[in-house]
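As practice, study what follows.
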Amino acid sequence: MTKAELMQGVDKKNFNFLILDLILQDSKCFDSLKKLRMNERCKKTPIIVISNSDFESDMLEAYSAGATDYSSKPYKFQTLINLLEKIIRTYCPAVSKNICH
């Protein structure tokens, strides 16, 4: 997905959370993440950044740009499930009673 497609999508819909890969086809993820945080619909939306980088500097830059959480690749499926459950428990407590255990 390109940066333009990403921004067009969030302008049309509300999301409970977003998962953003560090590498987009026409933009750096950090720029896209900053733009998402400036968008009214996404200011409070939890955003998980996944990346093939395990450099601390990339993780810190992602948090500085507005990431809610960060995971490096390769990740185990259960790791992603745990991150999503954490996001749901924190940002959607009413929903978490039904799906997080």
Remarks:
- The CA atoms of residues 17 and 45 lie 6 Å apart.
- Residues 77-91 form the longest helix (15 residues).
- The helical segments are 3-12, 29-38, 56-65, 77-91, 93-99.
